[in-house]
Design goal:
The chain is mostly helical and 74 residues long. It contains 2 helices and no strands.
Length: 74
């Protein structure tokens, strides 16, 4: 328990290391192009995953509907 109190007591607040002046963001055009390309990759990964999930949901609901219809006929 003493070790935990020592560790907590020695942690400095995050504001002690903060800069006093605001950071200037000099991101150029190539940085924004790169970030846009990364976003395109993420979207290209998400679209097939969503289509797969929708297809699986349709398949499962179709099977359940078929089983319910077969159960009512018997």
């Amino acid at each position: 328990m003493k070790a935990l109190a020592t560790i907590i007591g020695t942690v400095a607040p995050a504001t002690a290391f903060a800069a006093s002046t605001p950071r200037v963001d000099d991101s150029g055009l190539f940085v924004w192009i790169f970030l846009g390309f990364c976003a395109l990759i993420v979207i290209a990964q998400i679209v097939p995953a969503v289509l797969l999930m929708v297809g699986m949901a349709k398949g499962v609901t179709g099977i359940v509907k078929d089983e319910l219809k077969a159960g009512h006929k018997a």
